Structures are given as C-alpha cells and as structure tokens.
Amino acid sequence: MKPQIGDRIYYGLDSFGKNKASWRVESFLKRVECEFDPQIKPKDIVDEIIHDIIALELINEKLSREEQGLPCSRRFRYQWCKRDEATHVNLRGVCGCIAPIDEVEIIGPCWNEEKTDEEIKRYETFPLLGRFTDWKWE
Questions:
Q1: % of the chain at pLDDT higher than 90
Q2: pLDDT in tens, 42-88
Q3: Could you tell me the sign of the dihedral formed by the alpha carbons of 28, 1, 120, 11, in that order?
Q4: Which one of 23, 41, 63, 87 has the fewest CB atoms closer than 10 angstroms to its CB?
Q5: Nearest CA-CA partner of 88 in 97, 77, 101, 75
Q6: Does residue 27 register a pLDDT over 90?
Q7: What is the pTM of this model?
Q8: What CA–CA distance (Å, rounded) separates 24 from 92?
C-alpha cells in the first residue's frame, strides 16, 4: 500500500544508526531517466547546435564526476507527480529525504482526518506538480 500525504512513516535509521527514522510524507515523486541520446541526428542547424552543447555538457559533467570518484553511470531526476504515479516519496523530519515508495513502512497519519483531507486537497493543486528536481547521478 502506498503512503498518503501526511502519513508518518519509517525509513532508514536515525542519526545514531540505532532506531528506525520517523518521517512525514510531503509529496510524491517519480524517477525519470535521462532521455538524451547523443546518437540521435539533429533536424536542422539550430537543433545541431543545441544537441552539441548538451552532449558536450554531459561529457564534461561525467568526466568531472569520474575524477572526483563520484557516481556517474546513470543520470536521472525526479518529477513531482500524483500518488498513483509515484516511485518515491519526498519526506520531512528533522531534515528532508527522498525514499523509494516501496521501502517505507507506514506507521499511520500525522494529523486527524479533517487535516489530512485538507492537505491531500492542497497537494492536488500543488504548484510543483509536473516540475523536475535537479539532475542526479548514480
């Protein structure tokens, strides 16, 4: 079962590494893989220039990450989405966290039913729905 906005969940361990960490679900995200394919041929000169800039930027970023010993095999980002599309949840606790939706353990709601319904309705008009986070690598 997928958590709902305002659900209290467990994910990972606390900062001492001893107990389960408790979080509140703030929003839903889906993972979107990098779709840029350097093998695709541009249609016109403007498309070719943009294609070359993006390809060069990806190569430079990947090389820089390799030199620093950082992950650089796959590039992705998250997109805010509706609950039924979600692969991840955006969590709030002492700090923030993004967790795979199937790795969280639901404890129960944080609020009463009225407040929960209000927050769910608020999320349905969330201005970030459809927008993306920054690019990430793994």
A1: 41
A2: 778 887 888 788 888 888 888 888 888 887 777 888 999 999 999 99
A3: negative
A4: 41
A5: 101
A6: yes
A7: 0.75
A8: 5
Which DSSP string corresponds to 50-110?
HHHHHHHHHHHHHHHHHHTT---S-EEEEEE--GGG-SEEEEESSSEEEEEGGG-EEEEES
**Cα 29 to Cα 24: distance, rounded to the nearest angstrom:** 14
- The domain segmentation of the chain, as residue ranges, is 1-34+77-138, 36-73
Q: Are the C-beta atoms of 135 and 75 separated by less than 8 Å? A: yes
Alpha-carbon distance of 82 to 93, in angstroms, equals 21
CA distance 97 to 116: 21
Per-residue confidence (pLDDT) for residue 132, from 0 to 100: 82
